[in-house]
From TrEMBL:
<keyword id="KW-1003">Cell membrane</keyword>
<feature type="transmembrane region" description="Helical">
    <location>
        <begin position="683"/>
        <end position="700"/>
    </location>
</feature>
<feature type="transmembrane region" description="Helical">
    <location>
        <begin position="193"/>
        <end position="211"/>
    </location>
</feature>
<protein>
    <submittedName>
        <fullName>Cation-translocating P-type ATPase</fullName>
    </submittedName>
</protein>
<keyword id="KW-0460">Magnesium</keyword>
<keyword id="KW-0813">Transport</keyword>
<dbReference type="InterPro" id="IPR018303">
    <property type="entry name" value="ATPase_P-typ_P_site"/>
</dbReference>
<feature type="domain" description="HMA">
    <location>
        <begin position="13"/>
        <end position="79"/>
    </location>
</feature>
<dbReference type="InterPro" id="IPR008250">
    <property type="entry name" value="ATPase_P-typ_transduc_dom_A_sf"/>
</dbReference>
<dbReference type="InterPro" id="IPR059000">
    <property type="entry name" value="ATPase_P-type_domA"/>
</dbReference>
<dbReference type="Pfam" id="PF00403">
    <property type="entry name" value="HMA"/>
</dbReference>
<keyword id="KW-0479">Metal-binding</keyword>
<dbReference type="InterPro" id="IPR036163">
    <property type="entry name" value="HMA_dom_sf"/>
</dbReference>
<dbReference type="Pfam" id="PF00122">
    <property type="entry name" value="E1-E2_ATPase"/>
</dbReference>
<dbReference type="InterPro" id="IPR036412">
    <property type="entry name" value="HAD-like_sf"/>
</dbReference>
<dbReference type="InterPro" id="IPR001757">
    <property type="entry name" value="P_typ_ATPase"/>
</dbReference>
<keyword id="KW-0547">Nucleotide-binding</keyword>
Length: 749
């Protein structure tokens, strides 16, 4: 009994929350430190750009009320994850808040700078007027260093209470030191004040914060582009259609979608066929034909007649909602580079304070005037602000994730994002991955005396509800050959699907149907005739242990597959096609997409796929869509779920593609490499700046104003370098189009 209790106590869970009131990356680190010290909490990670908190630990320790009480002691607020609209409203409020303070800082700081400039330039005719002008400079600086700078003081105090002083603590200390030194000099009758340094420090940091907020807005726009459901829908109630709020719709309700309207929720198509435009959701250029019983997703647009579907997921739980939530989870996790940056920023601030105190004491003992010693210490404090270090990784990651999402790739784990940039091999499943997820039945061969309409009815019932591409193809074939009600009169008592192999269905009249591969039916005791292997896929139907029909199916590679594989090979990646299908079918597809014979592995079980992936050059990537690919996806360093993959695969994969084909693999790989390169550049540049700036400030006198400008320039350089990801993403389609045009000209006669 004690062992069971110990096992339960060691069980780890995860919870995602939103933190309100964050002012900078130091605030995020302070919240992490506060929560990490709580009993039962093993780790806490705050993603500052999205204000998202991920907590790991024992489930009782992850309760919202308990965590909120700990966070509130620092002055922040904890709540559930924000919806897209709430996050946008929060960033809008932050932008207005920053803009108001920035305008005040500019309005009053302008006169402070003008007064200081007159003193520095010696424009005043007497020393007495210099002192008066210094007092004027201080008067205009007062609103800036009090009201405008109040958020810096508040955040500095909060982070210090959490024993994680960061940039705001240094800014507050620097601004107050500049004001204190200036007042002390004025009391001594000296006009050489540093009110302008405090004003510039606060003003330029506000500019940096505003730029950060605008960058975070850009990341949200990628999420907004997915889908915004309508507020009102048409629901069937009391034998009539009534308008109701989207939040009032429950699972099992029937909704009506008029031509041209967009589906608001996930569901299952009821009566008749539907023609859906998936381009807003997946980017598919051609509409998709859906049959009764097929799953339909929110975000699809109805191109045909009015359709009716049964809701399978309420508002907030649809696939698009899960994608948004997965984006928040992904951003809240920290990769290797982010953890390195946090550690660097964590010890930089205490180091700066120690160096400033040592500089003050050393210069004073060396005979330097006291006021100059204080100025030297002030420069050390200002120049060491770890703002650039804190922004180096999150902004680059946010820009990279936003670019990936805009191009149809959801990257759920920043650790996988960094691994993706270093992959050395890529393996692919065949059916539903390199080929269209919906193969076509080419012919049905009867193996019994049953009439064709009855065979079609049995096949329709056997395939109903299956997510396997071959079973869905059989059902579409039946739908075309028979009326829409084929098989509807047969009652299903029980249905069981064996992942990737077949499906067993028990009917109300006592008959048992088997639909699946030849090998699986043989294992179930069904006598199957040995047929010549033509390389085509096949599905066999058996009724009560006797073979009834054989369906032959054909597959074609998805558009752009050959070009994507060639591009990956050109960059040195080892490729493999691993399938459970027969050798001839695999070889036929390999020839179509330009893969070599030694790169093809046919007839592989899920366990065999995993062994092959483990033997490939590491890190490795695997793309698969079915239940038989789950083990392979878990074995590979990075698992990718293509469009239309099984729901279990989608949940377990690190990367999900929202567009048909595997072109998204190359997109994700290129973006991951580019993002990781920018992350490393940001981290190296910010680290070099801080170390060099600290060394120079300690070794030689640096005017505080120059220190302020250098510190802000380093932060803005990190923001600008991260913005290159977005600009490069916008230019890339144009560059590719030009390259294709040049290639076409080069091959023209």
């Amino acid at each position: 009994m004690d062992a069971i209790s110990d096992s339960q106590s060691e069980r780890q869970g995860e919870a995602l929350y939103s933190v309100q009131g964050l002012w900078c990356t130091s605030c995020a680190l302070a919240v992490e430190a506060q929560l990490a010290r709580m009993p039962g909490v093993s780790a806490a990670s705050v993603h500052y750009p999205s204000a998202t908190l991920l907590v790991q630990g024992q489930p009782p320790a992850l309760e919202e009320a308990r965590l909120a009480a700990a966070v509130s002691r620092l002055g922040y607020r904890l709540g559930p994850p924000e919806a897209i609209g709430d996050a946008e409203a929060r960033l809008d409020a932050e932008s207005r808040y920053l803009t108001l303070r920035l305008l005040m800082a500019v309005a009053f700081g302008m006169w402070t700078m003008l007064a200081s400039l007159l003193i520095y330039a010696g424009a005043m005719p007497s020393a007495e007027l210099d002192v008066i002008m210094a007092w004027v400079s201080g008067a205009f600086a007062l609103p800036v260093v009090t009201y405008v700078a109040l958020p810096f003081y508040r955040a500095g105090w909060r982070t210090t209470r959490a024993w994680r002083p960061g940039m705001d603590a240094l800014v507050a200390l620097g601004a107050l030191t500049a004001v204190g030194v200036s007042l002390w000099l004025l009391m001594l009758g000296s006009p050489e004040v540093y009110f302008d340094t405090a004003v510039m420090l606060v003003t330029l940091l506000l500019v940096g914060r505003l730029v950060e907020t605008l960058c975070r807005h850009r990341g949200l726009r990628a999420l907004q582009a997915l889908h915004r459901p309508p507020a009102q829908v048409q629901r069937w109630v009391a034998d009539a259609w009534h308008s109701c709020a989207l939040e009032a719709v429950a699972v099992g309700d029937r909704l009506r979608v008029e031509p041209g309207e967009t589906l608001a929720l996930d569901g299952v198509l009821r009566d008749g066929e539907a023609l859906l435009d998936l381009s807003p959701l997946t980017g598919e250029s051609a509409p998709r034909r859906c049959l009764p019983g097929d799953a339909v997703a929110a975000g699809c647009r109805n191109l045909g007649a009015a359709l009716v579907f049964e809701v399978t997921a309420p508002a907030g739980e649809c696939r698009l909602d899960r994608l948004r939530e997965q984006m928040w989870w992904q951003q809240a996790r920290k990769g290797e580079l982010q953890r390195l940056a946090d550690r660097f920023a964590g010890w930089l601030s205490p180091l700066a304070v120690v160096l400033a105190l040592l500089t003050l004491v050393a210069t004073w003992l060396a005979g330097v005037p006291t006021e100059e010693a204080w100025v030297r210490a002030l420069s050390v404090l200002v120049v060491a602000c770890p703002c650039a270090v804190g922004l180096a990784i999150p902004l680059a990651g946010l820009a990279g994730s936003g670019q990936a999402l805009e191009r149809g790739v959801v990257i759920r784990d920043p650790g996988a994002f960094e691994t993706l940039a270093r992959i050395r091999s890529a393996a692919f499943d065949k059916t539903g991955t390199l080929t269209a997820g919906e193969p076509q039945v080419q012919a049905m061969h009867s193996a019994t005396n049953l009439p064709e309409p009855e065979l079609l009815a049995l096949a329709s019932v056997a395939a109903r509800g299956s997510e396997h591409p071959l079973a869905r193809a059989v059902r579409r074939y039946v739908q075309d050959a028979q009326d829409a009600g084929a098989g509807g009169e047969l009652e299903i008592v029980q249905a069981e699907e064996v992942g990737g192999r077949g499906r067993r269905v028990s009917l109300g009249d006592g008959r048992e149907l088997l639909l699946g591969s030849r090998a699986w039916l043989a294992e179930q005791g069904v006598a199957t005739q040995q047929a010549a292997d033509s390389g085509e896929s096949e599905v066999l139907l058996a009724c009560d242990g006797a073979l009834s029909a054989r369906f032959t199916l054909g597959e074609t590679a998805l558009p752009g597959t050959a070009a994507t594989l060639a591009e990956l090979r050109r960059h040195g990646l080892a490729l493999a096609l691993i399938s459970g299908d027969r050798a001839l079918a695999v070889r036929r597809l390999a020839d179509a997409v330009g893969m070599k014979a030694e790169e093809c592995y046919a007839g592989r079980s899920p366990e065999a796929k995993a062994k092959l992936l483990a033997a490939m050059p590491q890190p490795s990537l695997y793309v698969g869509d079915g239940l038989n690919d789950v083990v392979g996806l878990a074995t590979a360093s990075v698992g990718v779920a293509p469009l239309g993959a099984n729901s279990t695969v989608q949940e377990g994969a690190s990367v999900a593609l929202l567009k048909p084909g595997v072109a998204g693999v190359e997109v994700a790989w290129r973006l991951a490499r580019r993002t990781r390169r920018v992350m490393r550049q940001n981290l190296v540049l910010s680290g070099i700046y801080n170390l060099l700036a600290l060394g120079l400030a300690v070794a030689m006198p640096i005017p505080p104003l120059i220190a302020v400008l250098a510190m802000v320039a380093s932060s803005l350089s990190v923001v600008a370098n991260s913005a290159r990801l977005a600009l490069a993403g916008e230019r890339e389609p144009q560059v590719r189009q030009q390259s294709q045009q040049v290639g076409a000209l080069g091959t023209a006669p």
